[in-house]
Amino acid sequence: MDDSLLSGPENEADSFRDECGVFGILGRDDAAPVVTLGLHALQHRGQEAAGIVSFDGTQFSVERHIGLIGDTFTKRSVLDRLPGDRAIGHTRYSTTGGEGLRNVQPLFAEFAGGGFAIAHNGNITNALTKQRELQKRGAIFSSTSDTETILHLIAFSEKTRIVERFIDAIGQLEGAYSLVGLSQKKMIGARDPLGIRPLCLGDLDGAYILASETCALDIIGARFVRDIKPGEVVVITENGIESHFPFEKPSPRFCIFEYVYFARPDSNIESRNVYEVRKNIGMELARENPVDADLVVPVPDSGTPAAIGFAEGSGIPFELGIIRNHYVGRTFIQPTASIRHMGVKLKHNANRHMIEGKRVVLVDDSIVRGTTSQKIVQMMREAGAKEVHMRIASPPTMSPCFYGVDTPEKSKLLASRMSIQEMADFIRVDSLGFLTIDGLYRAVREPGRNNEAPQFCDACFTGDYPTVLTDQGGKDNVRSLSLLANNG
Amino acid sequence: MDDSLLSGPENEADSFRDECGVFGILGRDDAAPVVTLGLHALQHRGQEAAGIVSFDGTQFSVERHIGLIGDTFTKRSVLDRLPGDRAIGHTRYSTTGGEGLRNVQPLFAEFAGGGFAIAHNGNITNALTKQRELQKRGAIFSSTSDTETILHLIAFSEKTRIVERFIDAIGQLEGAYSLVGLSQKKMIGARDPLGIRPLCLGDLDGAYILASETCALDIIGARFVRDIKPGEVVVITENGIESHFPFEKPSPRFCIFEYVYFARPDSNIESRNVYEVRKNIGMELARENPVDADLVVPVPDSGTPAAIGFAEGSGIPFELGIIRNHYVGRTFIQPTASIRHMGVKLKHNANRHMIEGKRVVLVDDSIVRGTTSQKIVQMMREAGAKEVHMRIASPPTMSPCFYGVDTPEKSKLLASRMSIQEMADFIRVDSLGFLTIDGLYRAVREPGRNNEAPQFCDACFTGDYPTVLTDQGGKDNVRSLSLLANNG
Amino acid sequence: MDDSLLSGPENEADSFRDECGVFGILGRDDAAPVVTLGLHALQHRGQEAAGIVSFDGTQFSVERHIGLIGDTFTKRSVLDRLPGDRAIGHTRYSTTGGEGLRNVQPLFAEFAGGGFAIAHNGNITNALTKQRELQKRGAIFSSTSDTETILHLIAFSEKTRIVERFIDAIGQLEGAYSLVGLSQKKMIGARDPLGIRPLCLGDLDGAYILASETCALDIIGARFVRDIKPGEVVVITENGIESHFPFEKPSPRFCIFEYVYFARPDSNIESRNVYEVRKNIGMELARENPVDADLVVPVPDSGTPAAIGFAEGSGIPFELGIIRNHYVGRTFIQPTASIRHMGVKLKHNANRHMIEGKRVVLVDDSIVRGTTSQKIVQMMREAGAKEVHMRIASPPTMSPCFYGVDTPEKSKLLASRMSIQEMADFIRVDSLGFLTIDGLYRAVREPGRNNEAPQFCDACFTGDYPTVLTDQGGKDNVRSLSLLANNG
Amino acid sequence: MDDSLLSGPENEADSFRDECGVFGILGRDDAAPVVTLGLHALQHRGQEAAGIVSFDGTQFSVERHIGLIGDTFTKRSVLDRLPGDRAIGHTRYSTTGGEGLRNVQPLFAEFAGGGFAIAHNGNITNALTKQRELQKRGAIFSSTSDTETILHLIAFSEKTRIVERFIDAIGQLEGAYSLVGLSQKKMIGARDPLGIRPLCLGDLDGAYILASETCALDIIGARFVRDIKPGEVVVITENGIESHFPFEKPSPRFCIFEYVYFARPDSNIESRNVYEVRKNIGMELARENPVDADLVVPVPDSGTPAAIGFAEGSGIPFELGIIRNHYVGRTFIQPTASIRHMGVKLKHNANRHMIEGKRVVLVDDSIVRGTTSQKIVQMMREAGAKEVHMRIASPPTMSPCFYGVDTPEKSKLLASRMSIQEMADFIRVDSLGFLTIDGLYRAVREPGRNNEAPQFCDACFTGDYPTVLTDQGGKDNVRSLSLLANNG
């Protein structure tokens, strides 16, 4: 599903775009450099821009930059402008619409009671509705981010203390959010009541850490303490950590697609190892969709763990039949029209020597628009494959996500308008198999999907949205719109 | 052997640095854009800088840039300055010593008889000696590149026609070279008599191509015609190709390390597929150095094919126990001293969940200084591995290369000063095994090394240099010097 | 008073820093390019950053850049992002405190009733007080600019139509402001009731223009219509212009220092030509402070018109005895400490040949800290001047400005702590003479200062502030603080 | 003659472009920073690019940058790469033809006997002829600069010691040159036998300096010692200075146009002060071309000293009737075609208030193509001038320069194809007057031009070239070619 597989960036996206990553630390002298490393480990959750806000006991410092963490936040001059023993950071997928740095988080505001910074992973599904209410009351928005809506709700709260104001504000939110906030005295972490996005707690020699994934703890050798619970608000000061559950607790519905694609394989979420889940998926897939073939080839790199599982489950040898060129920057432009039409293999190349005359099983994580799958199947055929079978490590993706993932509108999702056989014809494979929804639940060690009370958010596969979608006119009215406005 | 494995670039290099890549095309209207793509596919042979020279029937155009091809040569403005139906290009590892663009190839000179450009992969072992002779005759050098020595030899030749002058010049060279030259009428390709570096011929709808590796043909859908032979000079014009063998032909001695590490897995060189050789290596290694263990873990990414072979040969499961962060730019600086001492895992992370309590076989391609291996073993131990066994997909590297590879001086090569057991203690593994030199020859489908007349250049393993090393005072006098001056 | 006269930018400022410039146009297809030219002509009012907001009938576009207009806004790509037949722009002196682009104007907000952009020249002396009130009501400030306070006052207004809301907001302001606003339908211009900062109305083939100075009309060949009057609000639409005087009208008090230094010599303000006023000043100065000397030398470039007037008035020849190096960028850093101590003449050089053995009258516009004057006198002495007399084209500057000019705090103003004789000793001149306040009024063709009802704001000379200074605790309580926070 | 007067850089040049400046110092620890300052003072001789070569007792360091000295060479990182107690530098007008940094001086070569750097102001009129000879002998040229020809002549010299080789080389040159060379032990200065370009010797606390103009001594407080004489070669070591006159001495012919336009007003050359000469010119011009008028207005900035002299000589008041916008970067692009056709006044504006109804004498330094004069006269008329008279501070420029000045080809010079009356009609003035050639000689304190043995090079006015022009086919064969290839 890696959409830039064979093509330059001028093409329409053919993947679910990663969401955002958040990271915060309190109680360590060089807080901002540590946040930089944490964000670096979360770079797969958002590659386009990042920001850090620190507090040094006297004042808040803000830096926001477009580009990879390793290129922007590792300069001494940048870090020197971020003093303090507490800091929070955010990395995001994109800066849409010429907005430049305005939408880069964390956002910061000077309230009457002092400064406050906030970083957000997720998407608020009633943000526009709330924004219109706030504007009528005199609020001025300087970004198009739903995170600014949260800030304004805090600003307009009639409560007194910052934690109360924060809880008052998030109590008005609907949708998915994992938040990290920073005031002069406190670092706050919060997850929405369904716990759709991840957030975990770590410890680095006594300093508290909040991070989207455990891999961001590993990079600095921090200890994993526990996941923040759905609906939980934790308030961290120099003196320790308090836990609040201000809202009634619904059943958790963590995003199951985090296991399929978004999270890093070495992260553990809710006591499950992501790599292991993906291998389980491959084994389930081999069981549900067996095929007689000569080799199992992963579509690099996201299909690799499932392909290893598939090979193990099926007994068919695992081979790197597609070689990836790691040097493709995100800016590679195919220089001329004549070259664009050559079908240039910028990013991957079939290893013809291994493929020629063979029956090949390709394993990929998902199919979005199908254009990438078409090209890769074509590449296999040109390399001489005798048969090409495609196995997909998830059920068909039929519905857009409103919870912080950038997905094409429904009508652009291949599975929303074709049967599996039509899809197989479209991408020109000899056979095509998807994992079932129950197979996916089994891969995460559930007996299957509990349709009465689903254990996860799986709306992209089932269309079963766990919240009202106010800005969309309610969940029965999901429009077929591009969701580029999603952010988080 | 990927030296930036766990560390930032401030550390000493702990790898054999890739050499250069060359690419040329004659007979295609958009020659420079095609060269750009070819160089992009050869980026693994040199990532720091690149250049292209084109000729449009009237004049030569030259562009040289520091940075990745995809960032520098894909701009329309750059390509618009490179018109013509013929062009040659070069990608190189580094621009040492503040020399900036002066050493970036292709080099170009205006001779009395017209312009000439040249791109070089290899290293001339009597270049300094020749340079001193030329300076005494009045030559002015504007770079420190051995390639400029070749240009001056052509300029001072007393022959008349450019091909004769070219042959006159290379007849004075000693060492390794694969050259691509461009005059107003001709594109010239040449390989040294031992054929140490690769060079192949391709065809794109009637346009001739010269390229370091076949993967550069694949990216543009060009047809592989044949390898240029050791000692061969090919002269290509609009009317066709001529082949010359101006020198007596010694037995070929292709660089066997190209198979181990340098070449891309999907390339075929001298009728062998690189990926397949590496898998063979893994199987030989499992046969020669068996071990009782729970899982085989590749050191990503260069150890992966051998690890797959090792797993297949040993029956031990293959697992991605180390996860790579693809977002590490080459510029990542660890921001503070305190963080530098944390042992930050910038580039790789152990997947603790898979490693804990297990007996692990790590497979890597080679050991140079050993510092990287130390760190990765340590990372495995911190992740809870019960035993750590290291298997290396080549014999111990004991001698520096003088043929176009940037290697540390001999005294810095761990294997030159330690026994295998001492090395095992140094990197703190439970067992350490290298491939034998005969095992390596078997992996390339030879019955073994013919010590009377070795089939390959394997000097880095054996110290058996196939040429005189004039600039070093002869091959019996190899000094323990840093070879940073090597280029090509 | 040009503070970078002989020194690099690392030194403390020794000048009154220029304020801001504003420009707007409605009714011309390529509005943004015209604004670019207008801002270019106003560059002397603010060199560090600029912004433009345009409206194309559907949406507002915003561009803000740090750097000179000619370098940042002349790129086609920037202008292409600013479509529309109406646009307003702003150029400003500096972006203090690492705030980067956040404080660059025009500021833009999306109100409940539609978008609104505003550009401001001046300074609101109760902005902080208002900001605190607004924050208590829930307003979030994203800049430290007083202009944002104006936006929030508009947002919180309980009036309905944008013009009413605008008037409601500015009715709460105290201080100096010349404002240009842009809504979907209207361009609004406003000057504070005292008319401290300039603003004029122009016409370009039927398109309306608002500009800080007439030189911004000249650059595009626009016709000067009239000055906007103190306390006037003009509302411009496609259908014409309306004028409002919503507040009681006090006597105008235009900033007299605009004539002395800020405005461009070719501008006309309130029916006076700036160059002519400066020549008049020089003649008054010669009359009030005669001296027997051989030549009159201007301190380039700001002292030149007064020096011409002084020469004309005194009959002493005018000579360019100091030569300016026009190539000093604002970034020139003196590279080493040893060089910094050499007293390097980066920007000006005495023409020794003309100076040696002569009695020289230097004419400068003002003395702020005196350090620049010291250096230039020293330069004259080293060039062999027999006598050095300094004549200043304004009265002593004794009080800081709170109306949009960046001045040092009172205690840093040389004239606030020394008598004229002490100042003469400090800068080491043979004689020093300032213009009297009445002489200055005569130069603008008034009979003298009407102390009962002064015709101008001359607070920097007299300490007589024409408004309450609420943020300073009232005008009787002017603190000796740096006023870096001033902006506008 | 300031060609960008009213127009953007897209127009054809309408001025004689400044030549190059050179500067060297030996015997001062921070040599490179001092050279930086010297080049900054010479920036008017070449604004596009600069270079410095230093030697620290062990090795030479080279830095070349495009841009203003103050932006490129003041960075600590740049200067830190230029250690040593001796250094030479060069600033140049332009980098024509995409050559980028290749043509930026000083050039450096590693000879058999050691390194040598050279910086050149002037132009060698047999450089191409010599280049062809050298190429036939095997020389490879890496730039198109005539300076490289000098380097090759040194390299091919059969003499032994560097000074002998240097003299051997320059003995083969024809044309104009002021050279500064640097070897490991010596700094060499040389002027061509006619002394066409300036070069002077200075002293800074015992360190020797060579510089194009005395203003480069003033900036660092160095003492002027003497001009280097025509045909002189000085060799400077730590032990002192030797003077050589290796060639027969013709009569000196210094470029008289240096006084008119190129040199800085505060420089003294051959015992004449440039500002004073320009004032003399103005007075001669008033005497030769009297006119009845109300005010004398300089075309800023190059016409100002002559205008002061004209005003003094004629008794007509001097006024700044044209105001210059100092913020025009060299990159200002007029953003749209419609704006380009508005006749936008980017750089200058008439001060209508002073001009309206007046009889104006404009004073400019020269007329090249006449297009700029046309525009400025038009601007005066639009500002309401009753009469416009133009007085030019030099004779008509009728012939191109081959000695280091970038001039249009002969056919583009207005004076080469029109009478004075035709020129007056072309630029639409009421009267036009040029200085006579004898008037110009009187302004430099000669009784007049000695036509038998002219005291100066005045070829641009007279067509009387003082050297053979070999590359042009001899001086009787001056082709009407663009001389963009000139450099120096």
From TrEMBL, chains A, B, C, D:
Keywords: 4Fe-4S, Glutamine amidotransferase, Glycosyltransferase, Iron, Iron-sulfur, Magnesium, Metal-binding, Purine biosynthesis, Transferase. Binds 1 Mg(2+) ion per subunit. It catalyses: 5-phospho-beta-D-ribosylamine + L-glutamate + diphosphate = 5-phospho-alpha-D-ribose 1-diphosphate + L-glutamine + H2O. The keyword Cell division does not apply. Residues 20-239 form the Glutamine amidotransferase type-2 domain. Its EC number is 2.4.2.14. Pathway: Purine metabolism; IMP biosynthesis via de novo pathway; N(1)-(5-phospho-D-ribosyl)glycinamide from 5-phospho-alpha-D-ribose 1-diphosphate: step 1/2. PROSITE patterns: GATASE_TYPE_2. SUPFAM superfamilies: N-terminal nucleophile aminohydrolases (Ntn hydrolases), PRTase-like. [4Fe-4S] cluster binds at C255, C401, C457, C460. Its cofactor is Mg(2+); [4Fe-4S] cluster. The active site is at C20 (nucleophile). It is an enzyme of class 2 (transferase). One of its GO terms (molecular function) is magnesium ion binding. One of its GO terms (biological process) is purine nucleobase biosynthetic process. HAMAP family: PurF. Catalyzes the formation of phosphoribosylamine from phosphoribosylpyrophosphate (PRPP) and glutamine. NCBIfam families: purF. In the C-terminal section; belongs to the purine/pyrimidine phosphoribosyltransferase family. This is Amidophosphoribosyltransferase.
